[in-house]
Amino acid sequence: MCATGTTWHIQNDRHMFLRRALLGWPKARKSPARPQREGDFDEVFDADFRTTGFSRPLDPEYACDGGEETCNHVRRFLGRQDRDLLGALWWSVVTGPLEYVRQGKVDEQREQHLAEFSRLQMAQLFSKGLVHEMAWHLAHACHHAWQVNYLYEAAMFGSLLDGGTLIARLDRAED
To answer: 48: burial class by Cβ within 10 Å (0-12, 13-18, 19+)?
Structure first.
């Protein structure tokens, strides 16, 4: 689930993820978490799936340097194989969305382009049998969205700040 969270939000525009991230960007943190943190599912959530507040520092060997374009782990991975396709996937789920929200101007065509471009990159990687490599990049992009570039935080702020002008509801049934 973690590996596809970012692409699901970008490609499935029901929650207007990019628009909300753009709206909330001024409120989101701008520097990577130090130290980056982790926790196992059963440590982080209780039996009712409420957060416990638990986390521990991520071992420095596994933490990334938080580079904006690409971090040390992505650079190392891209140095080994299929640099163009994997680099294009990284651009479509990290660099491109960051460029969009930072420019601060709503552009529906660009949002659609980012969604379609990420779909195409995933299809090309899948067709070449690079599923493991794709999953690693998508999972690491999700890590960046939570702890490095804070795109998820920006989208959450955007959700609070949209004043009902976007979709205003998620997937919840109305009473």
So the answer is: exposed
